[in-house]
Amino acid sequence: MMCGITGTPGTGKSSAADELARRGYPVVRLIDTVRPYALGRDEGRDTLIIDEERWALEFTPVEGFVEGHLAHLLPCDRVVILRCRPDRLLGRLRSRGYGEEKCRENAEAEALDVILIETLEGIRSDRLLEIDATDLPPAGAADLIEGFFLGQVPPSHGGIDWTDYLMEGA
Fold this sequence. Notes:
This protein has helices at 13-22, 52-58, 86-95, 100-111, 114-120, 138-149, 163-168, and strands at 2-6, 27-29, 38-42, 47-50, 64-67, 78-83, 128-132. The protein is an alpha/beta fold. A hairpin with a 4-residue loop joins β3 and β4.
């Protein structure tokens, strides 16, 4: 079974995946797989432009976890979306040295449920777990992800609402 770990940049995917790897689970980092599918670079957004369709079609499924903000585009058996309050996400992204425009774009994407909506376009809701990782340590997120992978944590989504973030500037 292949389980995707996805979410907006800065939500804790890599940290939770690191913990799962320490527990002995195979983890594929999507950043290690997308470079051959790069069409170029978007300098304004400081990101690679990926041929997502070709990449997803040619991706070889794995037994274990795939981690990255595009994991939900792959043919996963289950998907976990890590979420983070947009105001806290801004702080995390700024501490990484991201430009202000990129920070705001990601915080708004988080507030608008962009990853959740994209995920629901490709996977049944009974194969989806959405986790508020705002205050959850990596081991706690890994516990929930592992439980979902093993069928011990039930699927759940739709209980996270960050729209108040969008209204703050209105």
